[in-house]
Target: Carbonic anhydrase
Amino acid sequence: MQQQLILYLACAWTLCAGSGDWCYQSQFSCDHQCNAPENWDHASRNCAGRSQSPVNIVTRKTMKDDRLTPLKFENYQHIFRGLIKNNGHSVQVGVSHPSTISGGGLSTTYKAVQFHLHWGNNGGPGSEHTIDGEQYPMELHIVHMKSQYSDLGTALRDKEGVAVLGFFYEMSNSPNRKYESLINALRNIKPTNGNTTLSPIALAELIPPEQNLTSYYRYKGSLTTPDCSESVVWTVFENPIPLSMDQLKAFSELRFQNGKPLVKNFRPLQPLNGRTVFRSGGAAVMISSALLVVALAVGLEVSQPN
Ligand SMILES: [Zn+2]
Model:
């Protein structure tokens, strides 16, 4: 009897929750069942936590923090030949040289470990974070851990062990030449587990110039994939990186393990649950249009010559 019950429960689990690995909704199908985002807490309890990422950043609710000065980037100019891999959830590039970030309200120095991306379908909405409800076509995550640690596993057990820099992309009319190395490599890693060596690049080439990085948002959150550890200090930059439509579409050529297009690999938005999102001195606040009309009217009144 008990054995039957166990068997029944095992079947119900498979039918309702999917079985095996975690996946994005875009990968889920009846013949390939997996734990889609609403069931990630079956893969890891952390995913049901109260400080999860990504979040929608409502700019008028952010709090300005004068300690959020420009970050200090060190060795971001270092040119390296990284290994790029389709890991079945994203494309990821390992960073093995000591590129670090500090300042900007961070409690210590963090070193870069890897970077990866989240995107939509053929240039459609695909970022994880959103700003006032706007979803950008893609988002870059440069993952760092405190310099004192030698592996990410240890860093993830520290409440502030990991610092991720998030950058949005926007569609531009001309291709971004600095992305040629990365985008050319995608052709060689279409199937899951495909990997190849990138032609030499520097992290600094992938992100906007330093003088355009003074506006950013900061909050405490989690990894956006299982195990969803709540050990991430998030920095989300306002200034997007330009890519042409063709460059954005190249990411949709990649494949999940089951052969379906690797697209829409972003986690659904998570509730803030009372957390505050802080903004640096430079970050813009969206003024409501009603307020703007009043401000303009007052402005006109004042400027009317008597
Ligand atoms: Zn990510």
Q: What stands out?
A: The pocket of zinc ion is lined by residues 116, 118, 141, 224 (CB under 6 Å).
